[in-house]
Amino acid sequence: DAKTTQPPSMDCAEGRAANLPCNHSTISGNEYVYWYRQIHSQGPQYIIHGLKNNETNEMASLIITEDRKSSTLILPHATLRDTAVYYCIVRVYGGSQGNLIFGKGTKLSVKP
Amino acid sequence: GAGVSQTPSNKVTEKGKYVELRCDPISGHTALYWYRQSLGQGPEFLIYFQGTGAADDSGLPNDRFFAVRPEGSVSTLKIQRTERGDSAVYLCASSLRKTSFDEQFFGPGTRLTVL
What we know:
With 112 residues, chain A is mostly beta strands. In chain A, 0% of the residues lie in helices and 46% in strands. In chain A, strands 1-9-8-3-4 form a 5-stranded mixed sheet, with no helix packed on it. A 4-stranded antiparallel sheet of chain A has the order 2-7-6-5, with no helix packed on it. In chain B, a hairpin with a 6-residue loop joins strand 4 (31-37) and strand 5. The A-B interface holds A 2, 41-46, 49, 85, 87, 93-94, 96-105 and B 4, 31, 33, 35, 40-45, 48, 50, 55-56, 59, 91, 93, 95, 97, 99-109.
């Protein structure tokens, strides 16, 4: 079973920030938080990952709480092309286990 | 550059038939993964190759499913005696796996329909 809990769906207005929450209360000290997204009829795409510090890249920002039990993915200026299912995954960094364990994710709908 | 490609994009077969699904990973990627995605669900892990060998096949649902990667690049997922419950999108991903962080790059998937 996935180790994360996400809301099944969210709406966001185009141009506004999209804030996608994720709960991972059982996260271990050596597990990172990863975010992938899946646009309709495509394979999942990596977005960002982090351990305990906030992270930012060209796609998004990741805010992880101090106790690491939850995190938020932020798309600063959502566009219609950001409509997708967003998956939050916890995983050991560099572990021998190769696979990603996906839950059902959050379906984000960006509306004009 | 070229991403992960999968063929065919769609496959319709009849119950009981044998199917092969092909995955061409990104050149130079040593790790290759197969996942299966049913409607409304997240992808579910099937098998992971490191080079030519299966490093983890714990996700294969039963012995009707088998995968190979004989030369450490292209992989084929084989399903014998297909059942209607095998209908799903089969996703392939590859990664460098040379550093601790191995971003997985996914292909577009093969949609398998078993009638």
